Amino acid sequence: MHHTFFALCALILIAPIIAVTARQDPPGQESFTGRWVVRADNGDGTFRETVYALEQRATTLTGRILNPTNEQPIVEGTASTDTATFAVVTGRAPNERRTTYSITRSETSLTITITRPGQTAPQTLTASRGSATAGDAPARVEPPALHRVPDNGLARTPPMGWNSWNHFRGRFDAATVRAIADAMVSSGMKAVGYTYVNIDDTWEAGRDASGRILTNRKFPDMKALADYVHGKGLKLGIYSSPGHLTCAGYEGSYNHEAQDARTYAEWGIDYLKYDWCGAGRIYKDEEMQAVYQKMGDALQASGRPIVYSLCQYGRNDVWAWGPQVGGNLWRTTGDIGDSWESMTRIGFGQDPLAPHAAPGHWNDPDMLEIGNGGMTHAEYRVHMSLWALLAAPLLAGNDLRSMSPETVAILTNRDVIAVDQDPLGRQGHRVRADGDLEVWDKPLASGGHALGLFNRGRTPARIAVRWSELGLPGAHAVRDLWAGRDLGKIETEYAADVEPHGVVLVRIDR
Ligand code: GLA
User: Fold this and answer.
1) 436-464, pLDDT tens digit by residue?
2) What's the confidence (pLDDT) of residue 30?
3) CA–CA separation, 432 vs 454, rounded Å?
4) Fewer Cβ within 10 Å of end Cβ, the chain: N or C?
5) Ligand 1 center to residue 310 CA distance, Å?
């Protein structure tokens, strides 16, 4: 009797809860509401995840796409029982770009058809239900208080070497890196100063139970690879991010900075490129200095000399604080592409940053595209000349195993490399621009100067430089660095015919 009474009371009390739960469950399960995970196979034992965080109310669909490095709000979302559409808009009017999504839903998965601007063939992906937190950035760890990281004594001249990204993206492995090291020696590049063989993004896997970073299938033994590269008299570089995920969606160093620096030291790593990307989902741009300082400290504490390369696309005036976090170089722009437009936009845009370069810490206008095929030989000579005048890091970004003689000649010109590597460490600056014709000057340790006479136009042009406009009166010995010819002492001014999209690079000495 009592029991029945209590059972009845209990039922009365919990019935509304059951009813509410029951009412909520079916729509939650049946609608688009929830987190949907697309897992793309990277082909190296790792996966890149994109999460669609959606919410359906009647026929309205809202939500975000959670990418490794950013979140995109969806707009104009509509949904019925089993179909939905929405768009993602990037950029600002009038240059905004719309990507449209159309989705069909089965009980456990979504089929997502994506139409990107300018792409005729849509892409189709499958997403399955994920947990309520799938795709979330990890909890924020407060960045450290600012202090000055001591100079590591490295990179007294701009670093020289090779990096995998521009040519290979993710399609390379340890065997490729060994062959690149071999080619760096056999091509003569090592003999003229190229030293660092740098692995960019996509070597990482997850972490083991102790939090130690793991390498994926492409890099079965990082220490053995470092030993091999060292055996050639070269050095090995690696890549990571202060975020939880790198730009390509691989494991970053977030919350594992000291541990990763120790692992790099154990492997024998000599250079780290540290790429903001995923950190942008955790920190603000104003916090970059503290975040980069953390890894700067960690590298120093590792006890191994490791060149520290900051990659945050020139945001938040990195040149003003790069040296204080122990940085040896910092990217000044977004990514370079293998085109005349990209290379010249970046290269000729570096003039205001000249005061910030000095031995030990350099402006980095990004890696070289020489030999990748998107420019002519004349244009690649402009690339090499400009980077040398800028005292920029010279990191070849091509496939060193299969270079044309012209590519080798451009990359290994000793006179041009000497301009880049000049021990004074001054970054060149623009003397003058007359439309498409520019003159750049880099003071050298010897008291001489390197001068670039650039023709950015489409027709041949004659460019003249008067010694007086450089503040260098008297006669000067002139050497044409691409022709490899001494032109003798020249009074008053030097004039040269410069081919379209071309350069004449000279060194002048008293
Ligand atoms: C960013 C960097 C590139 C390269 C890629 C790798 O885009 O700027 O240089 O490292 O990430 O994912």
Assistant:
1) 999 999 999 999 999 999 999 999 999 99
2) 65
3) 10
4) N
5) 11
Catalytic annotation on 338?
Answer: no
Q: Give 166 Cα–ligand 1 centroid separation in angstroms.
A: 9
- How far apart, in whole angstroms, are the C-alpha atoms of residue 2 and residue 211? 57
Catalytic residue among 335, 415, 436, 480: 335
- Candidates 176, 326, 204; CA nearest to 277 is 204
Catalytic site residue from 275, 297, 338, 420: 275
Determine contact, residues 292/324, Cβ cutoff 8 Å: no
Give the pLDDT mean for 274-286. Answer: 98
Question: How buried is residue 325: exposed, middle or buried, by Cβ count under 10 Å (0-12/13-18/19+)?
Answer: buried
Percent of the chain with pLDDT over 70: 94
366 tagged catalytic: no
* Cross-strand pairs, 434: 437
Given pLDDT bands bounded at 50, 70 and 90, which one contains residue 22? very low
Specify the pLDDT at position 120.
87
CA quadruple 259, 256, 327, 231: dihedral sign: positive
* Residue 158: half-sphere exposure toward Cβ, Cα within 13 Å: 30
Nearest residue (CA) to ligand 1, atom 9: 335
pLDDT of 28 above 80: no
363: enclosing H helix or E strand:
strand 362-364
Inter-residue contact 311 to 275 (CB < 8 Å): yes
**C-alpha 200 – ligand 1 centre gap (Å):** 8
Q: Which residues contact 392 (CB under 8 A, 6 or more apart)?
A: 158, 350, 362, 363, 364, 365, 420
Per-residue model confidence (pLDDT) at position 107: 86
Average pLDDT over the chain, rounded to whole? 95
* Rg of the Cα atoms in the chain: 28
Convert 97-127 to b/e letters by CB count within 10 Å (16 or more is b): eebbbebebeeeebebeebeeeeeeeeebeb
pLDDT over 90 at 203, yes or no? yes
Q: Mean pLDDT throughout 59-79?
A: 97
